[in-house]
Amino acid sequence: MKKYLRTSLLLTVGAMLTWGFSSCEKNNDPIEKELTEKQKEMSQIAKQYVDNTVNLTYKNLAAETSELYDKLKAAKEKFLKDPKSLTQAEVDEICKTFIKARSSYEQSEAFLFGAATDFGVDPHIDTWPLDVDGLAAALTNKYQLEKLGGDENDAIAYAAGKLGQELLGFHGIEFVIFRNGKNRTVAALQANEDNEAFTAIKAQVTGAEELTYATAVAGDLRDRCYQLEVAWNANAPKAHKDRVEEIELPSSRNGKSYTDDLLGATKAGSGYATWEEVMTTILKAGCENICDEVANTKIGNPYSGKDKNYIESPYSQRSFIDFHDNLISIQNSLYGGVDGKRNEAASIMAFMKKYDAAQASKLESDLKAALKALEDCQTKLKGGFVSNISNPLVGEAQKKIQTLDEDLNKAAEWFSKQ
């Protein structure tokens, strides 16, 4: 998670639109100026993008985090009654659901420029490294444990408002249900926590207490993913809308959904003055932003030695998979939808192939090379990123992703001049 503000990103985008902001006058002009053929194509690309990339991804994420919460809640309640009643198969199912939700979130990071940043959702649910020392202190605090184990909605509200982002979201749950790249065992949950941060203060933390914490955090994670879904999609499920309204989470931009705001580009009230700005935002504030983060922060901090502990998903050892999913989010944004719902004819890549085939070919080739480099890291390096932060294969992957990042910057600049 990179704590970039949408405002600063869009200032960068705006600087690239050297001619475009003269068109801001459209917002005060009662006579709509006719779109060029290219702009009409861009409007169709944008519709395909929000319908089959953004909204489908957030729909899946909302459903998966809801399922994760339900499964953790059931496991917690069962474990509290009788620790021996919880089966390994049930724990494995929780882990499987977590992995699906985690993948969906990582595949959403090419559009963090929207509600995820505006409402602080990204840092709230995806900050790392986990503050394990803070977690040990929290789970030995009787008052906090009582609050986390209280009434369902009160427990979620307490976690959301009091734990702090270093103890919330995916990585707190990951700590409870994974260790050393494997699903946590029932036997480990039946014993006291043996992580060194806990043993150093002689903390006697039980599996029941860990599951109580993870369940409250999962409830907050679900709610924030509902917020993302509702903010983008005016047709999100009523139950999700009702929950977001109940806990008073903001869920609109300029008084409308993020989809309506983006698809209303050039019209009064939209945050987008031109269709060129929409395309450039998708590429620069979305795709290039996450590409840069993967190359220079997620990989760069540990690989360079700047921060060897800055490891994403260390307990499940899925860092390389997270990075790969981030590039899939770029791929989905470029090619007109998620796998199975893609329409490449109405995509950024198709537009580029039509008007600048050479640039499109390089972008396409470099995306494939970056994905392949991360797949090589997954298959060839045992122990994941945790055990291989200085491996040459990691360096090669970083270079490939940096090249892709350059391509995305150039593509954004090219779109700004159409």
UniProtKB/TrEMBL annotation:
The keyword Signal applies. Its main location: other. Residues 70-408 form the Imelysin-like domain. This is Peptidase M75. The keyword Signal applies. One of its GO terms (cellular component) is cell envelope. It comes from Tannerella sp. oral taxon BU063 isolate Cell 6/7/9. InterPro entries: Imelysin-like, Imelysin-like_IrpA, Imelysin_sf. It comes from the Bacteria. Keywords: Signal. It is found in: Cell envelope. Transmembrane segments: none annotated.
